[in-house]
Amino acid sequence: MLNIVIFGAPGSGKGTQSANIVNDYHLFHISTGDVLRDNIKRGTELGHTAKAYMDKGQLIPDELMISILGDVIDANREKAAAGIIFDGFPRTIPQAEALDKMLADRDMKLDAVVGLEVPEKELIERILERGRLTGRSDDNPETVTSRLEVYHKSTQPLMKHYQEKGLYNAIDGMGTIDEIYARIRKALDK
Fold it and tell me: Is 111 helix (H, G, I), strand (E, B) or coil?
């Protein structure tokens, strides 16, 4: 079993590279963004709550995200037999600690963190382009700045947290999708 977190700022390529990792390593992909957007689309209570936070570029409360992730894992135990890739979570040190506890409660542990490192100017260009192509409501100029500020303040400290645990693998997130993925494979295959 291989459980990993794919880590990086909005627009760093987490979703794109997660798909490659899922295909090669047969991991169960949990994208918190996809889970939340699905609930928004279906008009669930969670969706309404999440949309209010997302429209402002804010993070979903920790206890809510942990509960959602636990439910997704429990409902997909067979699909997760080879392991899980967490895409978009954790985003804070308290979330990382809660993830460790939630995994331990299920006799699992985190094995590696893939950190996609991309310059901010490139992140902004990628996010705005993705918004034009997909129509994602949270990929607009107003929200991008807020999301990057939240990332730098709340999420970036996770890098040091995971470095200290010996789990962080810094990956240069510039280049073609294949070039970036080759770097990821090299790190994971260690």
Answer: coil
* 91 flagged as catalytic: yes
Pairing of strands 168-172, 28-31: unpaired
The answer to whether residue 14 is catalytic is yes
45-99 pLDDT, tens digit each: 888 888 888 788 777 888 888 888 888 899 899 999 999 999 988 988 999 999 9
Per-residue pLDDT of 148-176, as tens digits, reads: 888 888 778 899 999 999 999 999 999 99
Q: Which of 14, 51, 126, 183 is catalytic?
A: 14
Is residue 147 among the annotated active site residues? yes
Among residues 51, 91, 126, 183, the one annotated as catalytic is 91
Residue of 37, 51, 126, 147 marked catalytic: 147
Domains recognised in the chain with CATH numbers = 4-189 (3.40.50.300)
- Angle CA 132–122–161, to nearest 5: 115
